[in-house]
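Do me a favour: review this protein, sequence plus structure tokens, and tell me how the chain folds. Record follows.
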Amino acid sequence: MLMNTKEILTQAQQGKYAVAAFNVYNLETAQAAIQVSEREGTSVIIALGERYFPTVDVEGFSAMVKAMAEKVKVPVALHLDHAYEKESIIRAIRAGFTSVMYDGSKYDLEQNIRFTKEIVEIAHMAGVSVEAEIGSVARGAFSDEEEGDGTLTDPQSAKAFVAETNVDFLAAAIGTVHGMYKGEPKIDLALLERIREAVGIPLVLHGGSGTPENVLKKAIELGICKVNVNTEVSMAAVSYLEKYAKEKQTAHLSTIMAEMQQAMEPVMTKFVRLLSKK
């Protein structure tokens, strides 16, 4: 069933667990995420990044996800990830997304507040919840995300930002990266605790891939309610394709796509179980 993202994350906050937000790009990635969550009996957030708009029919994609969501009993949210343009956010809202992320992290605090506040006002009129970001997540290996500068979130800035914008959930930059880590992860859990003390809304962790399980568990204890996962799932699919290309003499696309979906599901299952504390 389709559910507003804020409602899903409010329940997670109350239950002290987190929900996986899987970045998807096509039918197979969306099906894998929803089918895994249905088997595990957990909520799931289907996230489509603005950067995929040139290659994905946004309205058709939304209709597809909503149709799949109506067939399962678990809550499913449809989220616009890392959007920089107001036009993209309005398009997602009109297409039926249940939440949007406005990423104004490249601006100074005053500008970020001003631009985010405008997006929140637009989205809330349509009953759509909003995620925003203070600080910036750097890009690691095997990522197709935009490059961030790695600036960590200042708790007092986060407090002012939430109060001024009325945003529904906040992405906290605490040292995780988009993609896989290029060295030893340096994740500041003490900073996360201070952010949690400063704001009362659900917190989001970008860069779930490659983050040690013990760190993810502690982050959930400290208030993380949504964890974005992209690269590990992508790597599982690409690894399968590489193996298939080496071992198979002939191939049919239907078989490749079906087996690629199966290759992604164990990774998604791992995250769903870890975040939901199953």
Summary: The chain is about 50% helix and 15% strand.
